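Translate structure to sequence.
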């Protein structure tokens, strides 16, 4: 029952509560008056029973008059009491309503600006205590709002400052990027021109070497020149491929890997002799046909042969083998050279374990990119006695 009344009273307004109080007071007054009138009426009946012979006279004279007078007095007194209670209730309710309206106005104004409520303007002591706490709470909230506003303003200023700085940095970075892109394009253009201009004199040198050899026979000094020119040709081919690989499509053809490796060994034979080295070639017992682009295949074969010549110890032999089975053709180069400390890093661009060695460190990176594109598996076996590079070319390639 207590919870029932709590739920009902929790939704009442002051006006509704005032109305219900008036109704309750009216009911109490009516009940109280009715009880008094009923009590007087019982006294009248008792008097009539005690004097039965004089009942008619009593009913018409003094007792009846007295009963009516008492009833009128009780009704008048009840109305006066009801009016007095209603008046007092109205005054108290208006005082409470006035205090509550001031609190409502205070809370509404406190939402937008600093506001306070004066305790001396309130009627009840409880409301005055509430006003002190409400003023303290409003002041604290206002201070927090001001602090938050200042913090937001500071953050906005910082954001704007950082944004401007970032915009300047982005602009500078974009200018640097454009400058770097221009340098890179100029660099590529220079390499293109250099490659184009280098090919002709190299071809002239090689042609004159061959003509001189045919007419005068082999010459020890000319053989050294021929080996150096062939090294330059290999570098030229690498640079040419690097420059053109993104602009040119390289179609695949059917290539006999055993015969192709044999031709490249003949090309580098003079270079190996100049370095006091020699090739030992093991040809495949079965036909070793692969579907590959010849330009890409030349880069793979030539880089491995030139690296073997560059790093093999003087007076040693370089073993080159090609084999074939049902699924793949295998090409490997084995030589006596120093152990490779990191077999993974050697495929990174510009990486060289021997700082004093020749070259740019681009050859194996170029080989790795070609093998990744064409699905060629690479395996390296390096010890203190020898180093072997093995390449497996899949046969299931489309021409």
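Result:
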């Amino acid at each position: 029952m207590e919870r029932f009344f709590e739920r009902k009273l929790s939704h009442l307004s002051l006006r509704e509560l005032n109305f219900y109080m008036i109704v309750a007071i009216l009911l109490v007054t009516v009940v109280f008056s009715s009880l008094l009138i009923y009590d007087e009426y019982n006294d009248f009946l008792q008097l009539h029973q005690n004097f039965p012979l004089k009942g008619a006279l009593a009913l018409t004279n003094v007792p009846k008059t007295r009963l009516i007078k008492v009833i009128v007095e009780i009704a008048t007194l009840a109305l006066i009491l009801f009016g007095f209670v209603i008046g007092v209730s109205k005054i108290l309710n208006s005082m409470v309503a006035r205090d509550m309206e001031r609190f409502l106005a205070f809370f509404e104004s406190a939402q937008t600006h600093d506001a306070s409520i004066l305790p001396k303007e309130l009627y009840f002591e409880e409301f005055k205590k509430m006003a002190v706490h409400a003023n303290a709470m409003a002041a604290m909230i206002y201070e927090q709002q001001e602090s938050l506003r200042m913090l937001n303003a500071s953050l906005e200023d910082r954001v704007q400052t950082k944004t401007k700085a970032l915009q300047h940095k982005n602009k500078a970075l974009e200018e640097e990027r454009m400058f770097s892109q221009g340098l890179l394009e100029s660099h590529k253009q220079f390499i293109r021109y250099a490659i184009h201009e280098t090919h002709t004199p190299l071809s002239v040198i090689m042609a004159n070497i061959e003509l001189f050899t045919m007419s005068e026979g082999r010459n020890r000094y000319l053989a050294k020149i021929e080996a150096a020119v062939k090294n330059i040709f290999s570098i030229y081919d690498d640079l040419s491929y690097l420059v053109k690989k993104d602009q040119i499509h390289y179609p695949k053809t059917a290539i006999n890997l055993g015969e192709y490796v044999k031709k490249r060994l003949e090309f580098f034979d003079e270079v190996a002799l100049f370095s006091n080295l020699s090739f030992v070639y093991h040809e495949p017992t079965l036909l070793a046909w692969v579907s590959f682009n010849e330009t890409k295949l030349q880069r793979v074969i030539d880089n491995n042969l030139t690296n073997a010549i560059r790093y093999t110890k003087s007076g040693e032999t370089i073993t080159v083998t090609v084999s074939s089975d049902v699924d793949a053709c295998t090409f490997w180069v084995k030589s006596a050279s120093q152990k490779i400390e990191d077999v993974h890093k050697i495929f990174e661009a510009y990486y060289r374990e021997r700082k004093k060695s020749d070259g740019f460190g681009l050859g194996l990176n170029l080989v790795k990119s070609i093998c990744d594109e064409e699905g060629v598996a690479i395996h390296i076996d390096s010890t203190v006695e020898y180093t072997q590079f093995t390449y497996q070319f899949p046969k299931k390639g489309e021409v």
